[in-house]
Design brief:
Elements lengths: L7 H37 L5 H33 L1 H18 L6 H29 L5 H25 L8 H7 L3 H10 L4 H9 L16 H20 L4 H9 L6 H27 L1 H21 L8 H12 L1 H13 L5 H29 L4 H9 L5 H4 L12
Helix pairs in contact: 1-2, 1-3, 1-4, 1-5, 1-10, 2-3, 2-4, 2-15, 3-4, 3-6, 3-7, 4-15, 5-11, 5-14, 9-14, 9-15, 10-11, 11-12, 11-13, 11-14, 12-13, 12-14, 12-16, 14-15
Amino acid sequence: MNENTLSRGARIAVLCAACLGLLFDGIELGLMPVASLSVSKSLLGDAYTSDAGGVWFARFTAALMFGAALGGIFLGNLGDRIGRSRAMGVSILFYSVFAALGAWVQTQEQMLLLRFLVGLGVGGMWPNGMALVSECWSSASRPLVSGVMSAGLNMGILLLSQLAGLWPITPDSWRWLFYLAGVPAVLGTVVLVALPESPRWLANRQTTKRPPPPVSELFSPALLKITIAAIIIASIPLVGAWSASKWMIPWADKVAGASNAGYKATTLAWWSLGATIGSFTGAHLASLLGRRTSYFLISLGSTLLTVTMFQWTAPLQPSFHPIVFAQGFVATLFFGWLAVFLPELFPTRVRASGSGLAFNSGRFATAAGVLLAGSLFTFLGGDYSRVGTICSLIYSLGMLVIWLAPAKMRLED
């Protein structure tokens, strides 16, 4: 059985559903960076301080990343057990329903718990969506399809920035954003009950009489080296993105202040525009330059641009937004690259589990890294630029670890 058992209309429906799932996934990822300080000011009231705002931003981010790590592993494995489309529908329902509940929270701790639960769905969406599309469109240009999928996620962040620009997020007006984040529950329901399943997954289930694969199979002698290499390589861009570059949004919020409440949304828009182009281009760049060379150059460029963003410019300066755009473009080339690299690395039987484990294990490190960055933020007296600069050095490790990657991908099943 192959992709041709699906009609062209069915395959287009799969691609559209997965792109929409990732677009809404992007909205969830961009939500707290742009809303965090407003949420904290509202819920903490007189207890709010600038240092507390930064610390809670780190906590919300860490909770999301920890949930995404677990969701990517276990909901990714669910895709190997019950099917890609059904697991994708479950993931969308997770992140949308728990995001919507954030509109009713009364304490920071309640929001913290909900961000963890949202993270479960955020983590599960990527491996199941990518596995589903790669198996239903295996004869198409893999860089093109992967680029479209990766760009979809950053389009969600770009859409969020535009909405936040039209309706500024303030301590008195932020709950509407969480109501909006619940809308994808409609998509999740449709995907769960109506979206076609991967023909390759169905064929593999019918011809393979073994029970569904456990996550531990990824650490068998045959796959151990590949799994470890994939985890390390996927961790670098995730830790760098959330422990370093995302600090630019609350930094912009603090510097611009209440008198220019839309500035943080404009900053997010510049970054997400660059990120949308970068994540689409990353897959093509990997194909043109080779996987190792392209990853090395992306690591180098991300290091230089992130340090530049935090040290040689600042919010409200004319050069700030152009550098934010460039950093977003280069740093998200990683994710277009990963969209091609990870699914190809693992055989069909454990593809969703493997790519989910590799992509989301980095989020465990990211959660720890963000909490450490929050402590560093307090230690440095709330200095956003110094925190961002120090944490940006994680990108430079990519220039070393890429040589752990196998020269050729594992395509056989």
